[in-house]
Protein backbone atom coordinates (compact mmCIF):
# COMPACT_ATOMS: atom_id res chain seq x y z
CA UNK A 1 0.00 0.00 0.00
CA UNK A 2 2.79 2.45 1.01
CA UNK A 3 4.48 1.59 -2.25
CA UNK A 4 1.36 2.64 -4.13
CA UNK A 5 1.08 5.99 -2.31
CA UNK A 6 4.78 6.82 -2.71
CA UNK A 7 4.99 5.69 -6.30
CA UNK A 8 6.40 8.90 -7.75
CA UNK A 9 8.87 11.33 -6.21
CA UNK A 10 6.45 14.28 -6.24
CA UNK A 11 4.21 12.36 -3.84
CA UNK A 12 6.86 12.98 -1.21
CA UNK A 13 6.06 16.27 0.53
CA UNK A 14 9.72 16.88 1.41
CA UNK A 15 10.89 16.31 -2.15
CA UNK A 16 8.35 18.57 -3.81
CA UNK A 17 8.84 21.45 -1.35
CA UNK A 18 12.62 21.14 -1.68
CA UNK A 19 12.24 21.34 -5.46
CA UNK A 20 10.03 24.41 -5.08
CA UNK A 21 12.42 26.31 -2.82
CA UNK A 22 15.39 25.56 -5.09
CA UNK A 23 13.75 26.93 -8.24
CA UNK A 24 12.02 29.77 -6.34
CA UNK A 25 15.48 30.86 -5.14
CA UNK A 26 16.73 30.96 -8.74
CA UNK A 27 13.71 33.11 -9.67
CA UNK A 28 14.22 35.37 -6.65
CA UNK A 29 17.77 36.17 -7.79
CA UNK A 30 16.33 36.98 -11.25
CA UNK A 31 13.78 39.40 -9.76
CA UNK A 32 16.53 41.01 -7.65
CA UNK A 33 18.54 41.81 -10.77
CA UNK A 34 15.41 42.95 -12.66
CA UNK A 35 14.90 45.77 -10.17
CA UNK A 36 18.42 46.41 -8.89
CA UNK A 37 18.85 49.53 -11.04
CA UNK A 38 15.39 50.99 -10.24
CA UNK A 39 16.48 52.94 -7.14
CA UNK A 40 19.80 53.99 -8.73
CA UNK A 41 18.48 56.66 -11.12
CA UNK A 42 19.89 59.36 -8.82
CA UNK A 43 23.40 57.97 -9.41
CA UNK A 44 22.95 57.22 -13.12
CA UNK A 45 22.04 60.78 -14.10
CA UNK A 46 25.09 62.38 -12.44
CA UNK A 47 27.72 63.61 -14.95
CA UNK A 48 30.53 61.18 -15.78
CA UNK A 49 33.04 63.59 -14.22
CA UNK A 50 31.12 63.37 -10.91
CA UNK A 51 31.25 59.56 -10.87
CA UNK A 52 27.86 59.02 -12.54
CA UNK A 53 27.05 57.74 -16.00
CA UNK A 54 25.51 60.90 -17.42
CA UNK A 55 22.24 59.25 -18.43
CA UNK A 56 19.18 61.45 -19.02
CA UNK A 57 15.77 60.26 -17.80
CA UNK A 58 15.02 59.31 -21.43
CA UNK A 59 18.16 57.14 -21.48
CA UNK A 60 17.05 55.55 -18.21
CA UNK A 61 13.53 55.01 -19.58
CA UNK A 62 14.94 53.24 -22.64
CA UNK A 63 17.15 51.08 -20.44
CA UNK A 64 14.21 50.16 -18.15
CA UNK A 65 12.02 49.20 -21.11
CA UNK A 66 14.79 47.22 -22.83
CA UNK A 67 13.95 44.23 -20.54
CA UNK A 68 11.08 43.28 -22.86
CA UNK A 69 12.52 44.42 -26.20
CA UNK A 70 13.85 41.11 -27.52
CA UNK A 71 10.95 39.20 -25.95
CA UNK A 72 8.32 41.29 -27.69
CA UNK A 73 9.90 42.34 -30.98
CA UNK A 74 11.83 39.15 -31.75
CA UNK A 75 9.03 36.92 -30.38
CA UNK A 76 11.60 35.30 -28.10
CA UNK A 77 9.06 34.49 -25.39
CA UNK A 78 6.86 32.71 -27.90
CA UNK A 79 9.82 30.61 -29.09
CA UNK A 80 10.88 30.11 -25.47
CA UNK A 81 7.58 28.37 -24.75
CA UNK A 82 7.94 26.09 -27.73
CA UNK A 83 11.55 25.29 -26.73
CA UNK A 84 10.30 24.44 -23.23
CA UNK A 85 7.59 22.08 -24.48
CA UNK A 86 9.84 20.56 -27.14
CA UNK A 87 13.20 20.30 -25.34
CA UNK A 88 12.02 19.92 -21.76
CA UNK A 89 12.52 21.60 -18.42
CA UNK A 90 16.19 20.83 -17.79
CA UNK A 91 17.52 22.08 -21.13
CA UNK A 92 15.32 25.19 -21.17
CA UNK A 93 16.01 26.11 -17.55
CA UNK A 94 19.77 25.89 -17.99
CA UNK A 95 19.57 27.85 -21.24
CA UNK A 96 17.44 30.53 -19.54
CA UNK A 97 19.79 30.82 -16.54
CA UNK A 98 22.76 31.00 -18.92
CA UNK A 99 21.10 33.86 -20.83
CA UNK A 100 20.40 35.70 -17.57
CA UNK A 101 24.04 35.42 -16.46
CA UNK A 102 25.39 36.51 -19.89
CA UNK A 103 22.92 39.40 -19.93
CA UNK A 104 23.91 40.66 -16.48
CA UNK A 105 27.59 40.29 -17.32
CA UNK A 106 27.09 42.57 -20.35
CA UNK A 107 25.00 44.97 -18.25
CA UNK A 108 27.75 45.07 -15.61
CA UNK A 109 30.29 45.88 -18.33
CA UNK A 110 27.92 48.61 -19.56
CA UNK A 111 27.74 50.37 -16.20
CA UNK A 112 31.40 49.92 -15.23
CA UNK A 113 33.32 50.13 -18.56
CA UNK A 114 35.13 53.31 -19.57
CA UNK A 115 33.31 54.55 -22.68
CA UNK A 116 34.25 58.21 -22.32
CA UNK A 117 31.82 60.40 -24.25
CA UNK A 118 31.12 57.86 -26.99
CA UNK A 119 27.52 57.36 -28.06
CA UNK A 120 25.58 54.69 -29.89
CA UNK A 121 23.67 56.34 -32.72
CA UNK A 122 21.17 55.18 -35.34
CA UNK A 123 20.86 58.35 -37.42
CA UNK A 124 18.15 57.00 -39.76
CA UNK A 125 15.71 56.77 -36.83
CA UNK A 126 17.18 59.72 -34.93
CA UNK A 127 18.17 57.46 -32.02
CA UNK A 128 21.14 58.10 -29.78
CA UNK A 129 22.25 56.75 -26.39
CA UNK A 130 25.43 57.04 -24.31
CA UNK A 131 27.47 53.91 -25.08
CA UNK A 132 27.19 52.79 -21.44
CA UNK A 133 23.36 52.89 -21.66
CA UNK A 134 23.39 51.08 -25.01
CA UNK A 135 25.60 48.25 -23.72
CA UNK A 136 23.65 48.00 -20.44
CA UNK A 137 20.35 47.92 -22.38
CA UNK A 138 21.64 45.14 -24.64
CA UNK A 139 22.58 43.15 -21.54
CA UNK A 140 19.24 43.86 -19.87
CA UNK A 141 17.34 42.79 -23.01
CA UNK A 142 19.25 39.46 -23.12
CA UNK A 143 18.67 39.06 -19.38
CA UNK A 144 14.94 39.74 -19.95
CA UNK A 145 14.72 36.85 -22.40
CA UNK A 146 16.36 34.51 -19.88
CA UNK A 147 14.30 35.77 -16.95
CA UNK A 148 10.92 35.42 -18.68
CA UNK A 149 11.81 31.98 -20.11
CA UNK A 150 12.99 30.97 -16.64
CA UNK A 151 9.61 32.19 -15.32
CA UNK A 152 7.62 29.92 -17.62
CA UNK A 153 10.00 27.03 -16.91
CA UNK A 154 9.54 27.45 -13.16
CA UNK A 155 5.76 27.57 -13.64
CA UNK A 156 5.91 24.28 -15.51
CA UNK A 157 8.19 22.77 -12.84
CA UNK A 158 5.75 23.73 -10.07
CA UNK A 159 2.84 22.26 -12.03
CA UNK A 160 4.82 19.06 -12.60
CA UNK A 161 5.46 18.58 -8.88
CA UNK A 162 2.31 20.02 -7.31
CA UNK A 163 -0.61 18.98 -9.50
CA UNK A 164 -3.10 17.23 -7.23
CA UNK A 165 -1.31 18.71 -4.21
CA UNK A 166 -0.86 22.31 -2.99
CA UNK A 167 -0.49 23.81 -6.48
CA UNK A 168 -1.79 27.33 -5.80
CA UNK A 169 0.01 27.60 -2.45
CA UNK A 170 3.26 26.57 -4.13
CA UNK A 171 2.80 29.10 -6.95
CA UNK A 172 1.87 31.74 -4.35
CA UNK A 173 5.04 31.05 -2.35
CA UNK A 174 7.16 31.22 -5.50
CA UNK A 175 5.66 34.62 -6.42
CA UNK A 176 6.11 35.80 -2.80
CA UNK A 177 9.80 34.84 -2.83
CA UNK A 178 10.22 36.60 -6.16
CA UNK A 179 8.67 39.74 -4.62
CA UNK A 180 11.22 39.41 -1.81
CA UNK A 181 13.90 39.72 -4.51
CA UNK A 182 12.19 42.87 -5.82
CA UNK A 183 11.79 44.34 -2.32
CA UNK A 184 15.44 43.53 -1.49
CA UNK A 185 16.61 45.32 -4.62
CA UNK A 186 14.35 48.33 -4.04
CA UNK A 187 15.49 48.73 -0.45
CA UNK A 188 19.10 47.59 -0.61
CA UNK A 189 20.57 48.70 -3.95
CA UNK A 190 21.08 52.40 -3.19
CA UNK A 191 22.60 51.97 0.31
CA UNK A 192 24.83 49.21 -1.07
CA UNK A 193 26.03 51.43 -3.93
CA UNK A 194 26.63 54.30 -1.47
CA UNK A 195 28.63 51.99 0.79
CA UNK A 196 30.93 51.40 -2.18
CA UNK A 197 31.49 55.09 -2.88
CA UNK A 198 28.35 55.60 -5.00
CA UNK A 199 29.40 53.01 -7.57
CA UNK A 200 26.45 51.75 -9.65
CA UNK A 201 28.42 48.61 -10.50
CA UNK A 202 28.56 47.39 -6.87
CA UNK A 203 24.90 46.28 -6.48
CA UNK A 204 24.91 44.96 -10.05
CA UNK A 205 27.94 42.84 -9.22
CA UNK A 206 26.19 41.64 -6.06
CA UNK A 207 23.20 40.68 -8.23
CA UNK A 208 25.51 38.87 -10.66
CA UNK A 209 27.02 36.83 -7.82
CA UNK A 210 23.54 35.98 -6.49
CA UNK A 211 22.41 35.04 -9.98
CA UNK A 212 25.34 32.65 -10.43
CA UNK A 213 24.34 30.99 -7.13
CA UNK A 214 20.76 30.87 -8.49
CA UNK A 215 22.10 29.20 -11.65
CA UNK A 216 23.98 26.64 -9.57
CA UNK A 217 20.85 25.91 -7.56
CA UNK A 218 18.95 25.31 -10.80
CA UNK A 219 21.62 22.77 -11.77
CA UNK A 220 20.96 21.04 -8.43
CA UNK A 221 17.26 21.05 -9.31
CA UNK A 222 17.93 19.24 -12.61
CA UNK A 223 19.16 16.26 -10.57
CA UNK A 224 15.80 16.16 -8.77
CA UNK A 225 13.96 16.56 -12.06
CA UNK A 226 15.80 13.54 -13.49
CA UNK A 227 14.89 11.52 -10.39
CA UNK A 228 11.23 12.53 -10.69
CA UNK A 229 11.15 11.46 -14.35
CA UNK A 230 12.79 8.17 -13.39
CA UNK A 231 10.19 7.52 -10.70
CA UNK A 232 7.45 8.33 -13.22
CA UNK A 233 8.96 5.86 -15.68
CA UNK A 234 9.12 3.18 -13.00
CA UNK A 235 5.49 3.82 -12.06
CA UNK A 236 4.54 3.52 -15.71
CA UNK A 237 6.12 0.10 -15.79
CA UNK A 238 3.85 -1.27 -13.09
CA UNK A 239 0.83 -2.99 -14.55
CA UNK A 240 -1.56 -2.29 -11.74
CA UNK A 241 -1.30 1.42 -12.40
CA UNK A 242 -2.71 1.24 -15.93
CA UNK A 243 -5.07 4.13 -15.36
CA UNK A 244 -2.40 6.43 -13.98
CA UNK A 245 -0.19 5.47 -16.89
CA UNK A 246 -2.51 7.25 -19.28
CA UNK A 247 -2.24 10.41 -17.21
CA UNK A 248 1.54 10.14 -16.92
CA UNK A 249 1.82 9.59 -20.67
CA UNK A 250 0.08 12.88 -21.21
CA UNK A 251 2.58 14.59 -18.95
CA UNK A 252 5.85 13.73 -20.70
CA UNK A 253 7.78 16.60 -22.28
CA UNK A 254 8.41 14.68 -25.51
CA UNK A 255 4.85 14.66 -26.68
CA UNK A 256 4.69 18.20 -27.97
CA UNK A 257 3.52 18.70 -31.57
CA UNK A 258 3.19 22.07 -33.29
CA UNK A 259 -0.29 21.15 -34.47
CA UNK A 260 -1.35 20.95 -30.81
CA UNK A 261 -0.89 24.73 -30.48
CA UNK A 262 -4.31 25.14 -32.11
CA UNK A 263 -5.72 23.67 -28.89
CA UNK A 264 -4.36 26.70 -27.05
CA UNK A 265 -5.45 29.24 -29.64
CA UNK A 266 -8.99 27.88 -29.90
CA UNK A 267 -9.53 27.74 -26.15
CA UNK A 268 -11.85 30.54 -24.89
CA UNK A 269 -10.77 30.09 -21.27
CA UNK A 270 -7.14 30.62 -22.30
CA UNK A 271 -7.97 33.89 -24.07
CA UNK A 272 -9.91 35.12 -21.04
CA UNK A 273 -6.84 34.47 -18.84
CA UNK A 274 -4.55 36.17 -21.40
CA UNK A 275 -6.72 39.27 -21.53
CA UNK A 276 -7.16 39.34 -17.77
CA UNK A 277 -3.38 39.08 -17.32
CA UNK A 278 -2.77 41.91 -19.82
CA UNK A 279 -5.39 44.22 -18.27
CA UNK A 280 -4.70 43.48 -14.61
CA UNK A 281 -0.88 43.68 -14.80
CA UNK A 282 -1.17 46.83 -16.99
CA UNK A 283 -3.07 48.37 -14.09
CA UNK A 284 -0.46 47.43 -11.48
CA UNK A 285 3.20 47.30 -12.65
CA UNK A 286 3.04 50.49 -14.81
CA UNK A 287 1.07 52.25 -12.04
CA UNK A 288 3.91 51.50 -9.61
CA UNK A 289 6.33 53.42 -11.85
CA UNK A 290 4.27 56.60 -11.42
CA UNK A 291 2.94 56.03 -7.91
CA UNK A 292 5.77 57.77 -6.02
CA UNK A 293 5.22 61.07 -7.85
CA UNK A 294 1.45 60.68 -7.43
CA UNK A 295 1.90 60.48 -3.65
CA UNK A 296 3.85 63.76 -3.66
CA UNK A 297 1.57 65.62 -6.09
CA UNK A 298 -1.88 64.58 -4.85
CA UNK A 299 -1.41 63.40 -1.25
CA UNK A 300 1.16 65.88 0.06
CA UNK A 301 3.61 63.14 1.08
CA UNK A 302 7.25 64.24 1.50
CA UNK A 303 9.80 63.12 -1.11
CA UNK A 304 11.61 60.99 1.46
CA UNK A 305 8.47 59.08 2.42
CA UNK A 306 6.76 58.96 -0.97
CA UNK A 307 8.53 55.81 -2.22
CA UNK A 308 7.75 53.80 0.89
CA UNK A 309 3.95 53.99 0.34
CA UNK A 310 3.92 52.16 -3.04
CA UNK A 311 6.50 49.71 -1.62
CA UNK A 312 3.71 48.51 0.72
CA UNK A 313 2.34 46.66 -2.31
CA UNK A 314 5.18 44.11 -2.88
CA UNK A 315 5.58 43.73 0.88
CA UNK A 316 1.86 43.04 1.38
CA UNK A 317 1.89 40.40 -1.35
CA UNK A 318 4.66 38.47 0.48
CA UNK A 319 2.16 37.09 2.96
CA UNK A 320 -1.11 37.37 1.12
CA UNK A 321 -0.25 35.61 -2.15
CA UNK A 322 0.53 32.25 -0.44
CA UNK A 323 -2.49 32.78 1.84
CA UNK A 324 -4.92 33.24 -1.03
CA UNK A 325 -3.18 30.44 -2.94
CA UNK A 326 -3.80 28.10 -0.03
CA UNK A 327 -7.44 29.25 0.07
CA UNK A 328 -7.79 28.38 -3.62
CA UNK A 329 -6.19 24.96 -3.00
CA UNK A 330 -8.59 24.12 -0.19
CA UNK A 331 -11.91 25.74 -1.11
CA UNK A 332 -11.55 26.61 -4.79
CA UNK A 333 -13.46 29.65 -6.16
CA UNK A 334 -10.45 30.70 -8.28
CA UNK A 335 -12.51 32.65 -10.83
CA UNK A 336 -14.36 34.49 -8.04
CA UNK A 337 -11.03 35.47 -6.42
CA UNK A 338 -9.95 36.95 -9.77
CA UNK A 339 -13.23 38.88 -10.04
CA UNK A 340 -12.89 40.32 -6.54
CA UNK A 341 -9.24 41.33 -7.18
CA UNK A 342 -10.16 43.03 -10.47
CA UNK A 343 -13.04 44.91 -8.83
CA UNK A 344 -10.67 46.13 -6.10
CA UNK A 345 -8.19 47.31 -8.75
CA UNK A 346 -10.93 49.32 -10.51
CA UNK A 347 -12.18 50.81 -7.22
CA UNK A 348 -8.67 51.87 -6.08
CA UNK A 349 -7.89 53.63 -9.36
CA UNK A 350 -11.31 55.28 -9.36
CA UNK A 351 -10.58 56.72 -5.91
CA UNK A 352 -7.16 57.96 -7.09
CA UNK A 353 -8.81 59.54 -10.15
CA UNK A 354 -11.42 61.54 -8.21
CA UNK A 355 -8.90 62.94 -5.66
CA UNK A 356 -11.01 62.54 -2.51
CA UNK A 357 -9.37 62.79 0.93
CA UNK A 358 -5.94 64.08 -0.18
CA UNK A 359 -4.10 62.84 2.93
CA UNK A 360 -1.12 60.51 3.24
CA UNK A 361 -2.90 58.14 5.64
CA UNK A 362 -5.72 57.70 3.12
CA UNK A 363 -3.21 56.91 0.35
CA UNK A 364 -1.73 54.23 2.65
CA UNK A 365 -5.16 52.59 3.07
CA UNK A 366 -5.81 52.66 -0.68
CA UNK A 367 -2.35 51.21 -1.37
CA UNK A 368 -3.00 48.36 1.09
CA UNK A 369 -6.26 47.54 -0.75
CA UNK A 370 -4.30 47.51 -4.01
CA UNK A 371 -1.80 45.15 -2.37
CA UNK A 372 -4.66 42.77 -1.50
CA UNK A 373 -5.91 42.93 -5.12
CA UNK A 374 -2.35 42.29 -6.36
CA UNK A 375 -2.28 39.14 -4.23
CA UNK A 376 -5.76 37.89 -5.10
CA UNK A 377 -5.49 37.84 -8.88
CA UNK A 378 -1.97 36.32 -9.30
CA UNK A 379 -2.64 33.69 -6.61
CA UNK A 380 -5.71 32.47 -8.50
CA UNK A 381 -4.78 33.23 -12.12
CA UNK A 382 -1.46 31.38 -12.51
CA UNK A 383 -2.61 28.07 -10.95
CA UNK A 384 -5.75 28.21 -13.12
CA UNK A 385 -3.77 27.85 -16.36
CA UNK A 386 -2.99 24.11 -15.82
CA UNK A 387 -6.73 23.52 -15.36
CA UNK A 388 -7.37 24.82 -18.86
CA UNK A 389 -4.26 23.68 -20.74
CA UNK A 390 -2.70 20.16 -20.72
CA UNK A 391 0.77 19.71 -19.24
CA UNK A 392 2.51 19.10 -22.58
CA UNK A 393 1.39 22.55 -23.84
CA UNK A 394 1.82 24.40 -20.59
CA UNK A 395 5.18 25.99 -21.50
CA UNK A 396 3.74 27.41 -24.72
CA UNK A 397 0.60 28.58 -22.91
CA UNK A 398 2.50 30.43 -20.15
CA UNK A 399 4.83 31.89 -22.79
CA UNK A 400 1.94 33.29 -24.85
CA UNK A 401 0.35 34.77 -21.72
CA UNK A 402 3.69 36.34 -20.67
CA UNK A 403 4.19 37.58 -24.24
CA UNK A 404 0.85 39.40 -24.35
CA UNK A 405 1.45 40.71 -20.83
CA UNK A 406 4.90 42.06 -21.86
CA UNK A 407 3.33 44.13 -24.65
CA UNK A 408 1.24 45.94 -22.02
CA UNK A 409 4.18 46.27 -19.62
CA UNK A 410 6.24 47.93 -22.37
CA UNK A 411 3.63 50.18 -24.01
CA UNK A 412 1.42 51.31 -21.11
CA UNK A 413 4.19 53.18 -19.20
CA UNK A 414 5.25 55.00 -22.40
CA UNK A 415 1.64 56.05 -23.01
CA UNK A 416 0.93 57.03 -19.39
CA UNK A 417 4.16 59.10 -19.32
CA UNK A 418 2.83 61.18 -22.23
CA UNK A 419 -0.64 61.45 -20.65
CA UNK A 420 0.84 62.72 -17.37
CA UNK A 421 2.83 65.32 -19.33
CA UNK A 422 -0.45 66.63 -20.79
CA UNK A 423 -2.48 66.31 -17.55
CA UNK A 424 -0.23 66.53 -14.44
CA UNK A 425 -3.29 66.27 -12.14
CA UNK A 426 -3.24 62.48 -12.79
CA UNK A 427 -7.03 62.48 -13.40
CA UNK A 428 -6.65 61.20 -16.96
CA UNK A 429 -3.98 58.60 -16.21
CA UNK A 430 -5.82 57.26 -13.15
CA UNK A 431 -9.03 57.09 -15.19
CA UNK A 432 -7.16 55.00 -17.77
CA UNK A 433 -5.87 52.68 -15.02
CA UNK A 434 -9.44 52.50 -13.66
CA UNK A 435 -10.55 51.54 -17.20
CA UNK A 436 -8.09 48.58 -17.09
CA UNK A 437 -9.72 47.50 -13.81
CA UNK A 438 -13.25 47.76 -15.19
CA UNK A 439 -12.26 45.81 -18.32
CA UNK A 440 -10.62 43.17 -16.03
CA UNK A 441 -13.93 42.87 -14.13
CA UNK A 442 -15.79 42.25 -17.42
CA UNK A 443 -13.26 39.61 -18.48
CA UNK A 444 -13.46 37.92 -15.05
CA UNK A 445 -17.24 37.69 -15.39
CA UNK A 446 -16.78 36.23 -18.86
CA UNK A 447 -14.28 33.73 -17.44
CA UNK A 448 -16.80 32.63 -14.81
CA UNK A 449 -19.41 32.08 -17.56
CA UNK A 450 -16.97 30.20 -19.83
CA UNK A 451 -15.84 28.04 -16.91
CA UNK A 452 -19.45 27.10 -16.17
CA UNK A 453 -19.98 26.10 -19.80
CA UNK A 454 -16.68 24.27 -20.38
CA UNK A 455 -16.23 22.78 -16.90
CA UNK A 456 -12.55 23.74 -16.48
CA UNK A 457 -12.94 23.43 -12.73
CA UNK A 458 -11.70 26.94 -11.91
CA UNK A 459 -14.11 27.11 -8.98
CA UNK A 460 -12.99 23.69 -7.64
CA UNK A 461 -10.36 23.11 -4.94
CA UNK A 462 -6.93 22.02 -6.20
CA UNK A 463 -6.24 19.53 -3.44
CA UNK A 464 -7.91 16.22 -4.25
CA UNK A 465 -9.36 14.71 -1.12
N1 LIG B 1 3.55 31.01 -12.21
C1 LIG B 1 3.65 32.26 -12.90
C2 LIG B 1 4.15 33.32 -11.98
C3 LIG B 1 4.20 34.68 -12.65
C4 LIG B 1 4.44 35.76 -11.67
C5 LIG B 1 4.33 37.13 -12.27
N2 LIG B 1 5.39 37.39 -13.22
C6 LIG B 1 5.16 37.81 -14.44
O1 LIG B 1 4.02 37.94 -14.82
C7 LIG B 1 6.33 38.12 -15.34
N3 LIG B 1 6.01 37.74 -16.68
C8 LIG B 1 6.62 39.60 -15.39
C9 LIG B 1 7.27 40.12 -14.19
C10 LIG B 1 7.76 41.52 -14.43
C11 LIG B 1 8.21 42.16 -13.16
N4 LIG B 1 9.56 42.02 -12.90
C12 LIG B 1 4.39 38.14 -11.14
O2 LIG B 1 3.33 38.41 -10.57
O3 LIG B 1 5.49 38.63 -10.85
Automatic annotation (TrEMBL):
One of its GO terms (molecular function) is transmembrane transporter activity. It is found in: Lysosome membrane. It comes from the Bacteria. It catalyses: L-lysyl-L-lysine(out) = L-lysyl-L-lysine(in); L-alanyl-L-lysine(out) = L-alanyl-L-lysine(in); L-lysyl-L-alanine(out) = L-lysyl-L-alanine(in); L-lysyl-L-alpha-amino acid(out) = L-lysyl-L-alpha-amino acid(in). Coiled coil: none annotated. The chain crosses the membrane at residues 20-40, 60-84, 91-111, 131-155, 167-192, 204-224, 269-288, 308-328, 335-354, 360-381, 393-416, 428-450. Residues 19-455 form the Major facilitator superfamily (MFS) profile domain. Gene3D superfamilies: MFS general substrate transporter like domains. It is a multi-pass membrane protein. SUPFAM superfamilies: MFS general substrate transporter (SSF103473). InterPro entries: MFS (IPR011701), MFS_dom (IPR020846), MFS_trans_sf (IPR036259), MFSD1 (IPR052187). One of its GO terms (cellular component) is lysosomal membrane. Lysosomal dipeptide uniporter that selectively exports lysine, arginine or histidine-containing dipeptides with a net positive charge from the lysosome lumen into the cytosol. Could play a role in a specific type of protein O-glycosylation indirectly regulating macrophages migration and tissue invasion. Also essential for liver homeostasis. PANTHER family: MAJOR FACILITATOR SUPERFAMILY DOMAIN-CONTAINING PROTEIN 1. Belongs to the major facilitator superfamily. Homodimer. Interacts with lysosomal protein GLMP (via lumenal domain); the interaction starts while both proteins are still in the endoplasmic reticulum and is required for stabilization of MFSD1 in lysosomes but has no direct effect on its targeting to lysosomes or transporter activity. This is Lysosomal dipeptide transporter MFSD1. It comes from Hallella mizrahii. The lineage of its organism: Bacteria, Pseudomonadati, Bacteroidota, Bacteroidia, Bacteroidales.
Amino acid sequence: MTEKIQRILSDSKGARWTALFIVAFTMMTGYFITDVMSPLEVLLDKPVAAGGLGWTSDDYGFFAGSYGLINVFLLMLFFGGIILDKMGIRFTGIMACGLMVIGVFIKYYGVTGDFGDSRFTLSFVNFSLPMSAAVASLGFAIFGVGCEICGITVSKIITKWFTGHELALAMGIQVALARLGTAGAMMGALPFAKAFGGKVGAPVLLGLVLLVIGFLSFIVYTVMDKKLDKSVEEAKGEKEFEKEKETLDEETDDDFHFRDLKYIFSNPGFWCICLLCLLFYSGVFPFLKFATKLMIANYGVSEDMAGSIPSLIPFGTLLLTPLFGSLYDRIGKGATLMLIGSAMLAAVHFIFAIHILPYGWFAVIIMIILGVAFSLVPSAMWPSVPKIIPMKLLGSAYAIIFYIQNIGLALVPMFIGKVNGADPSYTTSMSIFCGFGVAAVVISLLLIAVDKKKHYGLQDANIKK
